[in-house]
């Protein structure tokens, strides 16, 4: 455990610049021995903010990979008799595109925001289990890398991201691609499960004094619901993956009809996980736009308790709709009727949120920043996706739409127009908090409009293609099936493919914006409170220090930061500013804690996580390698268990005079 002490000679800085207040009111600066930004410090870090950034950077790399896979799919379908990909390559491409976007981009990008901002929003110094947090990140990263090495080792998985039995058996897919898929998701699943437990404990036990559950920011609320969904959903998919891996590796017969088994068992296990998974992906973005819209509407969130409880209701009802993915499998009229009603019911709490967001903007002083545009974009695009989703509650209609491009259109409006637009709103909103600079608004608006146009051009026509009967996993279509007039599938496939490249240019503009913002000397340091924000994460320096707050704030209101800046005039009942953000921060830190206990850095999490892909490579190729990986796992787990809880300060050089954080030296063996 590292102890950070407040030097009596330091004066306050916020975001690297001195605050405009008297020295006696200044923000205390704390320095931790050995704190640095060297590559070694990132490898051994347990700081939730650094881990959040690492999640975000790695997830965005996978986003680019998944996007390239999508472009290859659209190139294949741009015209008749596509020759860009062979049939086998096409199967691999759409399998890995969906897997990458769901498990290696959206889920970890949600983890990036949750890791970085939940402790800040609840007034905590870190998560409950910092080293397990680091272990979760490395597990996910190594799992994602392991999954993608299949491209170079005989071919990737080719059974679709849903991996239906018996198509996922060795009879129909004899290569190792599905083995990589199964084992890679097992590794990333460990990260999801440990992260869920960690964040649940953090939120329930580490909130600042006075922060009741109904004073938490909505993003924290939605993230908490998601962690409970993960806690109960991940064991289900884990069981399914274990059964499939045993069938492929050890000739088990869990889904073998000839042995008396039922392949529908896989579908039930997968979709019991798979439909809560949709809300695991979308609810955090709901939380983000619930933070963004009030700030740029200059109003509190309309119906805060309803928004919080509707998120919990979505999480609860989401467990009862999985079989609407299976209406074509012959479940019977009673099951179909029950799941149809549940599918209708879940539209209610979702619609409530949309009403709350609209009412928040109604009558507000709207500021159309890039973050606000992406938030509004989510409201519009998700509404379209939600309306097409409700049509799936009509069983005859759903049976006809199943496995057509209508389904592809629906879930991309939900997950791209919803989840990813929400994530981009978060990028633009929280960027100055994380990196001290605001992303360029001009480039940001170009980024937004290109993505809006590209998304609707890409996925809008897919409704028409689906209603015309184009199968969702058809790798080639012929001129003879193109049709005529408005329903010409050749025309709409061309439009969809052009739209996908416009969408890609929009994402490229975001990357250009990042490079310009951080390379250009003309971009100034952002103010401490650039948006006039409302929640607690803005009540600290930008970026926050390792310990987040010099003094843990006491919370007396929902939107605590706003209430410290503004008060109601008792005579006119007008809301008037009584303090600037800098003054609020200086007042909070005028009585800083003398000793701040922070978790020690450790290299054991990365070593334990590294053992898992070694075991999995051994399971596929060589049992001796699997034994070596298992031995390495046991040794590293033992080393981690024996690591002293108080180790760290003596293992790092103190900062040299005049140097911000000192230099990291070689870590002594801990334990």
Describe the fold and architecture:
The chain has helices spanning about 40-45, 50-75, 85-120, 130-150, 175-205, 220-250, 265-295, 305-315, 335-345, 345-360, 370-390, 395-400, 405-435, 440-465, 490-520, 560-565, 580-590, 605-620, 625-640; strands spanning about 1-5, 565-570, 575, 595-600. The chain is mainly alpha-helical. Among the domains are: about 1-45 and about 525-600 and about 645-670, no CATH class; about 85-125 and about 135-260, no CATH class; about 605-635, no CATH class. The longest helix has about 35 residues, at about 85-120.
What is the overall number of helices?
19
- Strand order of the biggest β-sheet: 1-4
Integer-rounded radius of gyration: 26 Å
How far is it from the N-terminal to the C-terminal residue, by CA?
Answer: 14 Å
Helix content: 55-70%
> Based on helices, strands and strand pairing, what is the structural class?
mainly alpha
> How much strand content do the residues show?
under 5%
Give the beta-strand count. Answer: 4
What's the story with the biggest beta sheet?
Answer: 2 strands, antiparallel
Mean pLDDT: 89
Pattern of helices and strands: EHHHHHHHHHHHHHHHHEEHEHH
Q: Detail the poorly predicted runs.
A: 6-31, 648-671
Envelope shape: globular
